[in-house]
Write a structure and sequence with these properties.
This protein is an alpha/beta fold. The protein is about 40% helix and about 25% strand. The protein contains 6 helices and 6 strands. It has helices spanning about 40-45, 65-75, 95-110, 125-140, 160-175, 180-185, and strands spanning about 10-20, 25-35, 80-85, 115-120, 150, 190-195. Strands 5-4-1-2-3-6 form a 6-stranded mixed sheet, with helices on both faces. Helix 2 crosses helix 5 and helix 3 (about 95-110) crosses helix 4 (about 125-140). The termini are far apart.
Length: about 200
């Protein structure tokens, strides 16, 4: 498919994970919205902070009522969310699990014609690991496929907050609270990833 004259599709990714020798898992979620509504989604995500003077919205800092409100707000937006859920994730193996999930997520996103994945920046070293993982995954994409990865600080890009909400909802389901996930059931494509950790 020619990309001439076509607006590239971007995805915005964030994670949630649980390290455990018994039931650990890694959730890597990517939120995809039409480029025409990116600014609208940024505004909506920013409004979810309310009056709190916090640099970014974060699932783990919300109480259950705020989490439910955030998921309902996300459900009302015209988006699509791909999620890679990896397991097992024993203690101190989260980076290996992340790499497995990221590799699979790249393949899934590319199948939906996504050309750019923007991830929340962690550290310079860990961001480089993500870039190397994506480079490796590109070898498994069809010839001529364009796919890139970039990193942004969470406080600078509210579209990353949408992915955080998705990851939080999926994690809640894994932890026995499926109600959030049900609210976005029709907007989520979830794939299981064997991490071999």
């Amino acid at each position: 498919m020619s990309s001439v004259g076509r607006i590239p599709i971007y995805a915005f990714g964030d994670e949630s994970f649980k390290e455990s020798d018994v039931d650990g898992f890694y959730v890597l979620a990517a939120a995809v919205f039409d480029r025409a509504v990116h600014d609208d989604v940024r505004t909506v995500m920013s409004e979810l902070r309310g009056r709190r003077r916090i640099p970014k919205l974060h699932w783990n800092e919300m109480d259950p009522a705020e989490q439910e409100s955030a998921v309902k707000t996300l459900a009302d937006l015209d988006g699509f969310h791909l999620v890679a859920v990896g397991s097992p994730v024993p203690r101190r193996r989260q980076e290996r699990a992340r790499a497995c999930c990221l590799r699979r997520l790249v393949l899934e996103l590319a199948a939906f014609d996504v050309e750019m994945l923007v991830l929340e920046s962690r550290t310079a070293t860990l961001d480089v690991r993500d870039v190397e993982t994506v480079k490796g995954a590109r070898f498994d994409l069809p010839r001529g496929t364009s796919f890139r990865v970039a990193h942004e600080r969470g406080r600078d890009e509210p579209l990353l907050w949408a992915a955080d909400i998705v990851a939080g909802a999926i994690r809640a389901k894994k932890d026995g609270r499926p109600g959030y996930r049900r609210l976005i059931e029709d907007l989520v494509y979830e794939v299981a990833v064997e991490t071999n950790c």
